[in-house]
Amino acid sequence: MKKPAVSVFVVSVLALALSGCGFHLRDAVQLPSDLGPVRVVSADPYSPLAEMLSESMTRAGAVPADPKESVGVATLEVISERWGDIPISLDQYGRAQEFSLRYAVIFALRGANGKDVVPQQAIELTRDYVAPAADAVGKASEHELLAKEMRRDMASSVMRRIDAVSRKINRQGQ
User: Which residues are bridge partners to 128 per DSSP?
Assistant: First the structure.
């Protein structure tokens, strides 16, 4: 019979500790109120990042633009996506053991009126991973997994930049 009281106590202490440390959940991504329908475009028509951004914009409340419509449509443009794999350590035989995977994206968000909502800017992410020369299969799967995670993180970073600009615009308008 004392177990429920103990669990309530533990939950209360944890909640109090979390509130005391300053932890709080992020607010939902805020888009500019006058954005209108949005189209995500990329130089690569099969870009997984563009697809993720399109889904993220929809989840944030943006209305997807009709593919046939070009007037009165805001555009989130992925101008450039670049990947780089740089060796950062070598073994005694001169073979690369550790790599730094870099992912850089340049993007801009233009409103339906053609003006920049979020001016062109770059975001770069870097992750280090170990890839012994003897394990070529493991290296490929590690690289693929990191690339997938970095694309997800990049989509989140772009959305946070849009959110930051939107909040700034909304504060100035008030």
Answer: 100
Whether residue 127 contacts residue 101, with contact meaning beta carbons closer than 8 Å, is answered with yes
Confidence of residue 173 (pLDDT cuts 50, 70, 90): low
Please tell me the distance from the alpha carbon of residue 77 to that of residue 121, in angstroms, as a whole number.
11
**Residues 12, 13, 17, 23, CA torsion sign:** negative
SS3 call for 5: helix
Percent helix, percent strand, percent coil in the chain, to nearest 5: 40, 30, 30
What tens digit of pLDDT does each residue of 8-47 get? 777 777 777 766 666 555 567 777 777 889 999 998 989 9
Residue 35 tokens read as 């954005």
CA-to-CA distance for 52 and 161, rounded, in angstroms?
15
CA 101 to chain centre: 16
Name the one residue in this structure whose structure tokens are 């939902």: 28
Q: How far apart are the first and last CA of the chain?
A: 55
pTM of the model: 0.77
The domain made up of 29-173 has a fold known as Double Stranded RNA Binding Domain (3.30.160)
Report whether 101 contacts 84 (CB < 8 A).
yes
Please report, to the nearest 10 degrees, the dihedral formed by the alpha carbons of residues 34, 78, 125, 169 taken in order.
-20
